[in-house]
Inverse folding.
């Protein structure tokens, strides 16, 4: 065995290139068993095709082929974040939302796609699901002004004697937002999730059940929620409904029996979440098997997969600990997506043979697991309570740092801000740690995965609690001797970018910052943001106009004179959530202040970077930026010019 060489942190030689990270990090978008033999299909963003969302399958020989070839792209823009952009039947017919026009299309094997919904202006569809031979979807109609109208619709699968696409039949609306439609097996009832402004789905929502008359909801009743946030109704039979809800502060599973007294029975009462923020349509945290057992995700910081069998809970072994989602079930077989020691992937697991989980795609680091850092869960005290994070130390089998040197660290700040990270190293994390740069991934107050109380720590305090928590986590790591306190950087995108900018204008904890499409001006965000998040700031900061002074005080744009830390800014020019004007204002202030900075803008990119070239460029630029600011060489990456 070769003895590791002593080399300065940040300059360790690594086989992990930015291009390999982009290629090895599949962005999965749904999966399903298809056909009588249960062939596995999945959706996947293809970075080298400008982020096109393909639908793929694996042949018996092991080859991966496209069911939906280029230039078609299955991607929904409902709520701007989409989800549920495709489904398929057992005849191999694919139904999908085409990114370019947001219509629903049908593609039979060997045939070209044809539209099922008419060309009708800015009308979007998402959350597609085939249920008992009927195609249901969420429709979002933007033709009536700034505020879109949403409803649950049924889309005709065939048009006898006509080649023209017909308008879908509206089943129910009656609220600002709808999600998770579930048709009872006998077709007489529809269950769904509904919520209204100013709430987000994880603040307060309702589970509604309606009676269908001639295919339309004739009357409905709210059967759960109102002060809690129910999720994902699924029928066990014509009269029994299983769903997740958090009246206790944790999303647990419940059973509703549609008797005269509407009996609610807890299925499992545990200190963990089977559920999460409903950002993306179609996300599923549990599924019912044909024999009555339930396979569920449980989250308490990290994720665990379990099977519930009567009163017994049994863990299912899978190499994934975060972002678990139940994608499909057939008999005793379950499809689960998530991320683990080898990155993001899709697995098939038989609950009766739990030791034989089969990897379908992703989930294996091409450069070898010896280059992947092992996470260490850490909790540090903060001014608002304990702060949870995952530490990824520098990891390289061929290098160690000098004894008298502590490594530089990048503090990762997730978006949302209700997202969470779960202790799985990604290719991006390994890109840094393999070069001798540690990563601290922080679940600041406001993150999901630790219960409602931890998530609601951020209410009214966005820009305060999140900043205090990431600063506490970074300083706690440095105080432990694991990191060089003079070489701490902070990086985040979207809401994470907001925290980056707030931290740099309100603390001296960090020596460098990386903001990806970060929010800089709350008032502009409130004025420009899309309808799904139009009232989000009411809870996280305060309602306008009463809280306008607070919006100004919290916004980094109001304190750019205090921005004296070198900063790398990355921005998509087609971003509809955080427009480029916010990043450009920060760039201009850095220039006025004489602070070293770089501004990278990308044509064709929106809120989140999908193309391979953008992903490669940003990752290499981040490494080069850290090297310039913290004084270490970064061989193998193009230099970054700082203004």
């Amino acid at each position: 065995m070769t003895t590791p060489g002593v080399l300065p942190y940040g300059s360790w030689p690594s086989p992990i290139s930015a291009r390999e990270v982009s290629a090895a990090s599949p962005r999965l978008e749904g999966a399903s068993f298809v056909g009588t033999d249960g062939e596995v299909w999945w959706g996947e963003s293809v970075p080298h095709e400008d982020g096109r969302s393909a639908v793929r399958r694996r042949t018996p020989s092991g080859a991966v082929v496209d069911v939906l070839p280029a230039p078609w792209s299955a991607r929904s823009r409902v709520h701007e974040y989409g989800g549920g952009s495709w489904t398929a039947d057992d005849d191999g017919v694919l139904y999908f939302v085409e990114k370019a026009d947001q219509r629903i299309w049908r593609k039979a094997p060997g045939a070209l796609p044809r539209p099922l919904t008419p060309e009708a202006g800015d009308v979007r569809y998402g959350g597609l699901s085939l249920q008992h031979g009927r195609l249901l979807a969420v429709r979002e109609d933007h033709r009536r002004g700034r505020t879109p109208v949403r409803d649950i619709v049924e889309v005709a699968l065939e048009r006898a004697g006509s080649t023209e696409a017909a308008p879908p039949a509206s089943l129910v609306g009656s609220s600002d937002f709808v999600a998770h439609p579930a048709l009872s097996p006998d077709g007489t009832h529809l269950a769904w999730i509904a919520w209204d402004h100013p709430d987000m789905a994880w603040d307060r929502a309702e589970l509604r059940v309606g009676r269908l008359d001639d295919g339309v909801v004739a009357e409905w009743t709210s059967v759960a929620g109102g002060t809690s946030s129910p999720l994902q109704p699924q029928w066990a039979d014509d009269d029994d409904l299983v769903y997740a809800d958090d009246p206790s502060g944790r999303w647990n599973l419940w059973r509703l029996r549609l008797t005269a007294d509407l009996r609610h029975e807890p299925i499992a009462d545990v200190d963990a979440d089977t559920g999460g923020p409903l950002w993306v349509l179609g996300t599923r945290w549990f599924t019912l098997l044909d024999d009555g057992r339930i396979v569920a995700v449980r989250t308490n910081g990290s994720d665990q997969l379990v099977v519930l069998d009567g009163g017994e809970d049994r863990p299912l072994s899978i190499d994934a600990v975060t972002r678990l989602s139940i994608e499909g079930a057939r008999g005793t077989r379950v499809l689960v997506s998530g991320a683990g020691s080898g990155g993001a992937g899709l697995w098939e697991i038989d609950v009766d043979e739990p030791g034989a989980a089969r990897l379908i795609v992703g989930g294996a680091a091409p450069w070898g697991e010896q280059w992947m850092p092992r996470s260490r869960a850490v909790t540090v005290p903060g001014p608002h309570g304990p702060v949870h994070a995952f530490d990824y130390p520098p990891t390289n089998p061929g290098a160690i740092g000098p004894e008298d040197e502590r490594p530089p660290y990048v503090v990762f700040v997730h978006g949302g801000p209700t997202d969470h990270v779960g202790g799985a190293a990604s290719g991006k994390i390994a890109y840094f740690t393999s070069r001798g740069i540690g990563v601290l991934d922080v679940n600041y107050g406001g993150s999901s995965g630790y219960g409602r109380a931890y998530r609601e720590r951020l209410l009214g305090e966005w820009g305060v609690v999140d900043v205090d928590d990431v600063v506490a986590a970074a300083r706690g790591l440095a105080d432990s001797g694991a990191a060089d306190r003079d070489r701490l950087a902070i990086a985040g995108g979207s809401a994470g970018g907001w925290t980056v900018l707030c931290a740099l204008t309100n603390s001296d904890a960090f020596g460098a910052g990386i903001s990806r499409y970060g929010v800089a001006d709350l008032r502009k965000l409130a004025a420009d943001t899309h309808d799904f998040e139009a009232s989000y700031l009411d809870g996280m900061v305060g309602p306008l106009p009463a809280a306008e002074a607070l919006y100004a005080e919290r916004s980094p744009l109001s304190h750019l004179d205090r921005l004296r830390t070198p900063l790398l800014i990355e921005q998509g020019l087609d971003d509809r959530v955080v427009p480029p004007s916010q990043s450009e204002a920060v760039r201009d202030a850095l220039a006025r202040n004489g602070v070293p900075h770089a501004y990278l803008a990308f044509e064709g990119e929106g809120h989140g970077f999908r193309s391979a070239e953008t992903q490669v460029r940003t990752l290499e630029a981040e490494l080069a930026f850290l090297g310039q600011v913290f004084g270490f060489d970064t061989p193998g990456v193009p230099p970054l010019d700082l203004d």
Q: What stands out?
A: The first helix runs from residue 18 to 23. The first strand starts at residue 5 and ends at 6.
